[in-house]
TrEMBL record:
It catalyses: propanoyl-CoA + hydrogencarbonate + ATP = (S)-methylmalonyl-CoA + ADP + phosphate + H(+). It comes from Reyranella humidisoli. The keyword Metal-binding applies. This is propionyl-CoA carboxylase. Pathway: Metabolic intermediate metabolism; propanoyl-CoA degradation; succinyl-CoA from propanoyl-CoA: step 1/3. The lineage of its organism: Bacteria, Pseudomonadati, Pseudomonadota, Alphaproteobacteria, Hyphomicrobiales.
Length: 650
């Protein structure tokens, strides 16, 4: 076994690897860029080495810097996590040349399976079901259109070296194929320094289901069941769960055995994942193999009881797997939600800044939080905006979903925008609860984007009752408790009568008798309460003379008034928001990559106006209506802040 391991990564995955190493008594070395000097993974490691400036191309992607850090600290092995160098054949070879163990597969397997084109050819040879497509690199957009026509629309244009949803476009016609080729190659070049793309048939109504593998260097390869990853947005996974609510035992076994056959064909060792697309008839097709640990590995760990990072380390150290296929258990259900610093109400654009307040749900056997941030830390513009991976576990799928919903209520984040409201809406969606999933779920169920209208208060009277209790507790401390109140819930009046005190309150409202038990004290961000014997959590923030309550992803601004105050409040005018309809504003901080229009030009609704680059992703900003460009307020190459003016219309 190793004495010291260097983690060639950052954020939550670096912290997750450190956690297992500590349990095994292995010392850890963190590497960090200048932007990550105060990061959590740096704090938690035994040693840390600065490797360069903030851009990953000048730090985390520099192989020589990682090797230098290994030599400097005496690290015997490197765990690459995911992303960055985890699937770079050259990295594994460079480490091997220096006598440093790579905690992952060997270079041959990385090359064979890491390239989407070559991996599909190998899969076909190994007898694995594959999607029809054109597997050679495509030279230009015109050729892409011809190939797409031959395969038949819709098609998927994908970066050969891609991953994480980058360099992928769906095309339903010639125009989209031509445009998608350009966007996919640009993103692929920026993200992977490899602009090759290929085209394959796009399977409609698909599910994305993947098989987790673990293999050792002694010829043993085992599959650890499947994960359902169909809830995706722009091909980026949002919710994952294990097992899949769709597979039957026969299909599960067939997929597992094909995945193992593919891994054995390249003498694979370490953890890896074979991804399949599955149609409504449970017919499955090979997508790709990820020769690394997956972001969503915790759900597999929760249902099997294994530690995949530990197994990777032991395999790299030359040990045999400690179990056989027949020993792999499948107990209960696990769900993972990816919590990102992004604004779901602004088309999920990244949000950067400081985590002014940050409190995670209390971890336990039914809740797991993997994170790389802390209160007061910063979400940097240079890296993936993930805040945490929130996992829930239960004996059944419904139990795991219910626990996730409560955990999301307990996740308190302030200072940056985040997608918890969207995750809460997904968890409560009847179609999700029913398990009727496809990779088109979000596009179909949230047409036109995500808005506050998707999160109406499920029980306004209950929220009004909570607000009345919060006010009563506050009032007692101020020495002026009164029983008759009008709660203005998003300006809608709800009359309540409050009695009781201490730890139990009774609220009469709209013909209901609501009993609330809580030990909440002013200043605490979470109201934990029993409402008619049901456990709930409501987030509460002081807001001027009132409060903002957040529950099940939705928020309500409340004022608790006397009846006379409510009469006067109803007469007060509502302040109108400023009119920004004549401006194209930057929806995120980023770089203005290009401007497609000029002053005086007429534009049509849907026409591309500008491209803003952030987090290595190109975001095309389009006209929402017909108009004429009056003034360009920014030019290509400018750095933009949120809501900065780019274009003004006449």
């Amino acid at each position: 076994m190793f004495d010291k391991i260097l983690i060639a990564n950052r954020g939550e995955i670096a912290c997750r690897v450190i956690r297992t190493c500590k349990r095994l008594g292995i010392k850890t070395v963190a590497v960090y860029s200048e932007a990550d000097a105060d990061a959590l993974h740096v704090r938690e490691a035994d040693e840390a080495v600065l490797i360069g400036p903030p851009p990953s191309a000048q730090s985390y992607l520099l192989i020589d810097k990682i090797i230098e850090a290994c030599k400097q600290t005496g690290a015997q092995a490197v765990h690459p996590g995911y992303g960055f160098l985890s699937e770079k054949e050259a990295f594994q070879k460079a480490l091997a040349a220096e006598g440093i163990k790579f905690i992952g597969p060997d270079a041959r397997a990385i090359y064979a399976m890491g390239d989407k084109i070559e991996s599909k050819k190998l899969a076909q040879k190994a007898g694995v079901s594959t999607v029809p497509g054109y597997l050679a690199a495509i030279p230009n957009a015109e050729e892409a259109v011809k190939i797409a026509q031959k395969i038949g629309y819709p098609v998927m244009i994908k970066a050969s070296a891609g991953g994480g949803g980058k360099g992928m476009r769906i095309a339903y016609n010639d125009v989209e194929a031509h445009e998608g080729f350009g966007s996919a190659t640009n993103e692929a070049k920026a993200s992977f320094a490899d602009d090759r793309v290929f085209i394959e048939k796009y399977v409609e109504e698909p599910r994305h289901i993947e098989i987790q593998l673990i293999a050792d260097g002694h010829g043993n390869c085992i599959y650890l069941w499947e994960r359902e990853c169909s809830i995706q947005r722009r091909h980026q996974k949002v919710i994952e769960e294990a097992p899949s609510p769709f597979l039957d035992a026969k299909t599960r076994k067939a997929m597992g055995e094909q995945a193992v056959a593919l891994a054995k064909a390249v003498k694979y060792k370490s953890a890896g994942t074979v991804e399949f697309i599955v149609d409504k008839h449970r017919k499955f097709y090979f997508l790709e193999m990820n020769t690394r640990l997956q972001v969503e590995h915790p759900v597999t760990e929760l249902i099997t009881g294994v530690d995949l990072v530990e197994l990777m380390i032991r395999v790299a150290a030359g040990e045999k797997l400690p179990f056989q296929q027949k020993d792999v258990k499948l107990e209960g259900w696990a769900v993972e939600a990816r919590v990102y610093a992004e604004d779901p109400f602004r088309n999920f654009l990244p949000s950067t800044g400081r985590l002014v307040k940050y409190r995670e749900p209390q971890p336990g056997p039914d809740v797991r939080v993997d994170t790389g941030v802390f209160e007061g830390g910063e979400i940097s513009m240079f890296y993936d905006p993930m805040i945490a991976k929130l996992c829930s576990y239960g004996p059944t799928r419904n139990a795991a979903i219910d626990r996730m919903r409560r955990a999301l209520d307990e996740f308190y984040v302030r200072g940056v925008s985040h997608n918890v409201p969207f995750l809460a809406a997904l968890m409560a969606h009847p179609r999700f609860v029913a398990g009727n999933l496809t990779t088109n779920f979000i596009a179909e169920e949230f047409k036109g984007g995500f808005t506050a209208e998707h999160l109406p208060p499920g029980d306004p009277a209950m929220l009004a009752a909570i607000a009345a209790v919060v006010d009563r507790i506050h009032g007692h401390r101020a020495g002026s408790p009164q029983s008759e109140r009008v709660v203005m819930l998003n300006r809608a009046p709800i009359a309540v009568s409050v009695s009781g005190g201490g730890l139990e309150y009774v609220i009469e409202t709209e013909g209901r008798h609501i009993v609330i038990e809580t030990g909440w004290l002013p200043g605490e961000p979470l109201v934990r309460a029993k409402v008619d014997q049901h456990d709930i959590v409501v987030q509460v923030d002081a807001l001027g003379s009132g409060w903002r309550l957040v529950h099940e992803g939705g928020q309500a601004d409340v004022l608790v008034l006397t009846p006379r105050q409510a009469e006067l409040y109803a007469l007060m005018p509502v302040k109108a928001a400023p009119d920004t309809s004549k401006f194209l504003l930057s929806p995120m901080p980023g770089l203005l990559a290009s401007v497609a229009v000029s002053e005086g030009q007429e534009v049509k609704a849907g026409e591309a106006l500008a491209v803003v680059e952030a987090m290595k992703m190109e975001n095309v900003l389009r006209a929402t209506r017909d108009g004429t460009v009056k003034t360009l307020h920014a030019k290509a190459g400018d750095s933009l802040r949120v809501d900065q003016k780019i274009i003004e219309f006449a």
